User: What shape does this take?
Amino acid sequence: MNNSWESLREAAHGVAKRAYAPYSRFYVGASVELKSGEIVSACNVENVSYGLSVCAERNLVGRLRADGTIAQVQRLAIYTEASPPSAPCGMCRQVLSEFYGDLEILLFNDKGEERRTNINALLPMSFSVEELKTGQQES
Ligand code: THU
Assistant: This one.
């Protein structure tokens, strides 16, 4: 594990403390390292209308797209307190797969446990723009 992962871990762990999760008390931090070395982070933000809660990963994608850095991402680290470390939910997997395939992902917790994966492994046979193109009808 190199320094880049270490910095990313610190960022993801740190941003999880900013999570707004008064309902689930499940604090998630997601951080990416850009090609420039810059780290961008986000946390989950819940709502009293529970279904409106947004996961850390999707908040992060929104930030990256708005910053214009979505294509500059090198690696992603996701912090949760779960044991084993939690993987992204299905909705976040689909959103991440819009932009990334073999993106390396580190899932970790504060108990020293970690798992390494990538988007393709998390979401095999994903629905993609290819399906959309081949299924389009003439109008
Ligand atoms: N959550 C995430 O932030 N990312 C995931 O991939 C799974 C779930 C959040 C949503 C909610 O605020 C809390 O964790 C419990 O589901």
In short: The pocket of tetrahydrodeoxyuridine is lined by residues 21, 24, 26, 28, 44, 46, 53, 55-57, 88-89, 92 (CB under 6 Å). Helices lie at 3-16, 56-67, 90-97, 119-122, 129-134. Residues 96 and 119 are 7 Å apart (CA to CA).
